[in-house]
Amino acid sequence: MLIAVRFWLQVLCGELNLLQVSHSGPQLNSSPALGGNMTGSPDRFMYFAYGSNLLKERLQLKNPSAVFITTGRLKDYELNFGLWKEHVDNSWHGGVATIQYHPGAEVWGVIWSLSIENLASLDRQEGVGVGIYSPLDVSVETDEGTMLCRTYQMNNFHSCPPSPQYKQVVCMGAEENSLPEEYLKWLKTIKTNDYSGPSVLDELSSART
């Protein structure tokens, strides 16, 4: 009884986060992990990017408040590429990144701090409102310690290779933020669908010049 009382007192005082003590893994969450141990600001949230949003110019197109915090790894997940339906067109003309639970695997990415005002635009970019991705809170390991972040996972995943342009953006973001060399080498081995037409990369190329 005493242990239970002490536990709930810690929760109420903010010393424990129920997500962090849960044994059921990361939880779906429509609200972001506010503040965080690197900003301490209640009007900002931490976001873990692992796909095209590794690239600053890509993320800031719709979310200009994004500020780099650090890099980190998400354990027990793997990076995959696919679509949320078997046959669907998108602006990248191929599969896009998602994470899938896989014990022993790890996904490297970038932690960004965003203004809460950009929460709606980030959700919109990820297609949350139409059921493409679902937000969830995850614990990401960094050199500064474990950080609770918002990220996104694709619904109704169907494996599909990415376009060369999408793969290029992911690799550019990984290089830009100095993700581990071995991880970058692995990203460069990912097979594509050989699409050669226009894509979002054209818009990003303009933003970088």
From TrEMBL:
Top-level taxon in the UniProt lineage: Eukaryota
Binding annotation for substrate: Y47, F48, A49, Y50, G51, S52, Y166
Name of the protein in its database record: Gamma-glutamylcyclotransferase
Gene expressing this chain: ggcta
Signal peptide (from-to): 1-24
Gene Ontology MF annotations: gamma-glutamylcyclotransferase activity
Catalytic site: E126
Keywords, comma-separated and alphabetical: Lyase, Signal
Pfam family, one: AIG2_2
